[in-house]
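Schema walk-through. Below, the input block comes first and the output block second. Nothing else is stored per chain. Lengths vary across the set, and this one has 1320 residues.
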Amino acid sequence: MGTPVNITAGSHVWVEDPELAWIDGKVVKLTGQEAEIEASNGKKVVAKMSNIYPKDMEAPPAGVDDMTKLSYLHEPGVLQNLRTRYELNEIYTYTGNILIAINPFQKLPHLYNTHMMQQYKGAPLGELSPHIFAVADVAYRAMVNEGKSNSILVSGESGAGKTETTKMLMRYLAYLGGRSSTEGRTVEQQVLESNPVLEAFGNAKTVRNNNSSRFGKFVEIQFDKRGRISGAAIRTYLLERSRVCQVNDPERNYHCFYLLCAAPQEEIEKYKLGSPKTFHYLNQSKCFELVGVSDAHDFLATRRAMDIVGISEKEQDAIFRVVAAILHLGNIDFAKGEEIDSSVIKDDKSRFHLNTVSELLMCDAQALEDALLKRVMITPEEVIKRSLDPLNATVSRDGLAKTIYSRLFDWLVDKINVSIGQDPNSKSLIGILDIYGFESFKHNSFEQFCINFTNEKLQQHFNQHVFKMEQEEYTKEMIDWSYVQFVDNQDVLDLIEKKPGGIIALLDEACMFPKSTPQTFASKLYQTYKNHKRILKPKLSQTDFIISHYAGEVLYQSDQFLDKNKDYMVPEHQDLVTSSKCAFVAGLFPPVVEEATKSSNKSSKFSSIGSRFKLQLQQLMETLNSTEPHYIRCIKPNNLLKPAIFENVNILQQLRCGGVLEAIRISCAGYPTRRLFFEFINRFGLLAPEALEGNYDEKVACQKILQKKGLKGYQIGKTKVFLRAGQMAELDAQRAEVLGIAAKTIQRRVRTYYAHKQFIALRESAVCIQAFLRGNLSSKLFYNMRREAAATRIQKNARKHQARKKYNKLRISVLALQMSLRAMAARKEYGIRRQNKAATLIQSRWRCHRASSYYKRLRKASLVTQCRWRGKLARRELRKLKMASRETGALKEAKDKLQKQVEDLSLRLQLEKRLRTDLEEAKTQEVAKLQNSVQVMQSKIDETNFLLEKEREAMKKAIEEAPPVVKETQIMVEDTEKIDSLKTEVESFKALFEAEKQRADESDRKLAEALELNEDRCKKLDDSERKITLLQESVNRLEEKIANLESENKVLRQQAVSMASNKFASGRQRSILQRGSESGHFAETHFRELHSPSLNHRETEVEEKPQKSLNEKQQENQELLIRCIAQPLGFAGNRPIAACIIYKCLLHWRSFEVERTSIFDRLIQTFGHAIEKAQDNNEILAYWLSNASTLLLLLQHTLKASSAAGMAPQRRRSSSSAALFGRMSQSFRGTPHGVSLAFVNNGMTGGTDSLRQVDAKYPALLFKQQLTAYVEKIYGMIRDNLKKEISPLLGLCIQAPRTSRASLVKVHHVQLQTMQPSKR
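--- output ---
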């Protein structure tokens, strides 16, 4: 065993990760056999010491081209090296003589051009960058120089790039091997151009790859004595025949079926084809087309490749007729016949496909039907024909299709080999093995079993080769290697291929018995290997079994093992195909040479895929063992098939399956770390300086270094130092310790020198400056005294002059202002008087005109009315008198009528009085209208004439609408006395009219006075409105205060309901009344509410509750606050929300005024937990710093310390905290928008000045002091984090690496990502 790995606190290591496989980190703490590691992604992991590996911090930034050069050869080191090179598009890497090729999934033409071939031609392995050309060149040079055949084994899973790698290898070998022509075409051209044919008939789309080879291929390139290509041959292994009949979604069948369906229309009609969706062998999967691939174009390319290979047009037609026949054969369905266990063709559609198959194969349709539906059994007595049921008929159909396709593929391979031509005289060859890698899917069948069996064989060969290389290396360096053990997988190979009793032998035995089932085969397997460590039995299945391969455990489903293993040809099918009229179809099945005896032995007739494949594999291994092997391991970086994606877990699994990690394990079993003498001395010479000073030989110097450090188990060869696993890490740890001590010493000496030098210069400068300043100060003092005296006199005179000048200017300004104001007042008074005089004149003229016009119209109307009425009455009386003369009683009747008329006149008189009252009301209305018109004239003097016209029209309308004062009265001619009385009444009415006119004039005068009074009142109204506006604003502010107090009162009333005793309720009531008395009506309202019956009833209920209900309520509120601020609330309008919430809650609960409370301790604990969780996250620390500083500023402006409580905190405050908080408070005062205290103070605009001062008790002052300490602590943590980020740049100044300037930049970049800054 090697020296254990020396891992200490601060070491950089690799630790396992479930997502990334391995992740780098730094050891923080060691506890026994466990280590706490801080990963590079911020996580903290605890792992065992045996599960972590050291990380090489001095590895080149671009990786190493050979992983044997790694300082630490382990899984994470290999994975990181491959990832680093892949990111730089370096897809090839050596592991000794093994080449690892990672598929880039993109074109890299610069790697494969002719110039690159010229560079690698003849170059030794390892001299240039890793490349497949280098491997091919080594194989070619070894073959030419040593005369021994070589082989190149290309392996990897589907999609890893094996086929493309094989093509590039053949191109380079063709470049080296010259031009050996066959029928006008070179051999290498025919080999390369045969790939499209083999890919069309042997490749298919799988889950992992769109062009996956479903067969193994070994290309033998033969060379003559001069090293020129003389021939070639292609060997194939294990074609996946079951894919012809069974396809899983989303995979596809072989490409040739889809190419034929996309052929030109005349060929589709010729073979009676259609869409792939119409064929049973193709529509089992929903995938019919490939993205970015044209089947029609590939069909033409395949035809051209067939022409190049040498397949004639007739043979091509026969090939595609066979392919079309297989498609039609899959569409033949069967139904149950009339007899027992018999079957017939299902319908006309199936009959059509049957006839089409017979036409394409050129055989009899009835013979084809009998071959599918019947079996012939030959006995010594007679020949018996037995019918098949529909299930067995379907199996017979699928067996015929698989057999025909397999024979067709074998014919194509033979044809290509014949076309290329083989050289029987060739003694040297280079074989290129393009074979499937290890496979482990969700469902694994017989194909995966054979593939993994092949990989087990190749892995054994690979391990032996790697072990042999290790032996050669140790022998070359002449060191002891006898204790290196080789791990062999022979037990797995014996489990599969051993005779008798192997899995293949058991499978062949089960296939020979007709009644064997997968259950009987699995039970026999379990019984035979029940104690074998490499085979396991699943718990929930009777037919599955698990084999522990070198790459891991694989679960196999043996349901179809028996059917897929059978390889013998049914005699009916043999007779049918050989009877075909097409020579090509008949030639696919050559006649079988049978024994002379007619007694058919089942064992002699039976053949299996497994046995045949085992035989082919043995031949392949014999070929490989006779050659010198070279290995290329192809890796698929991701399952998305996209460039620049590197999946660690997927690649690590492929490295295990490809045996790369096994090769590394073999290397680690010996001496994984190897360094040339000069490299070892350059790196570790500082551990033993005396070894470098003595002019020793490099080998002796290395020996002295290792002996001084006390390492054991190492070996020193001729040119290299061989170290056991872990010894490199131990030397690196000691080297880092020495470098750290040296760096500290250098830093101490340099700082001392700079400090002393700075002090001397500072002292000399101070003495010189002091002398100069003292002389300068003396001269300036005298000069300032003279200037002071002169300035005093100048100031006296200047102040006198300025005062007099200011007084004169002020007096002139006052006089001018008085004169202007008096002139303006006089002009205003004059204008008012002119307006009043003009208005009075207009009113008098208008009233005079109105009265005179009204009188004239009334007089004229009354005269006309009287004349007409009197004339009418006179004529009427004349007629009556003429009649009365005829009768004596007419006078009496006339007298009675006159009496009635008198009564009517009295009634009319009353009516006229009523009309008079109506006229007065109309006058009052007119007076109101005149008042309105006067107000309009005062506001708009320019529109006076227009308003006067409008008023005239209004007065005219009013006069026309007014009823007449005097009505017509019937006056008898004879009754003159009554006429006189009526005249007297008319005169009285006139007198009344004159009185009313005088009264109207008096009302006009009063109206003018009222207008003047109205103007004074308008002025007073404007003043009162301004006062009302100010009062309204104050009322609004009071209402806002009242609303706040009401909301606070509601909360207090809710708390009052839950109070436990009448004493607490009465105390809360008094506090509410005391605060409410400040807002007047608000206090009275709430006083009534508090003394309401409902509240009294609630108080009686509260008194019955226990005391602890209030405490529980307070505890719930505190818990809610703690949970709220524990979450990142962020900012609202550049304000920290958490600080504002804490301040409001503390102010609302009156926590500052209580003697005992736990809320402050809980808040401090919350701040402390949040800061401890985010010590390295500056964003979270900045968030808590803003909250703590904002809350501290609010407390500074709110808390008012009493004389007793405030003494101790002020004395304990340090000068540093005062300075820090002073700067912060000044910044807050300077920028009030940054910390908007208006948000805290209910939107008030006063800022910090409007905050209510509170008499704080000792807990509040202690909380303020603790909060100050946390502000300083957070600030210091942020400062330290920034120093840690800057210190790597300073660390580069400690030592100068011996690399170029370009590598310095890269190393610096890697160190910034992975290393923690070194200690000063």
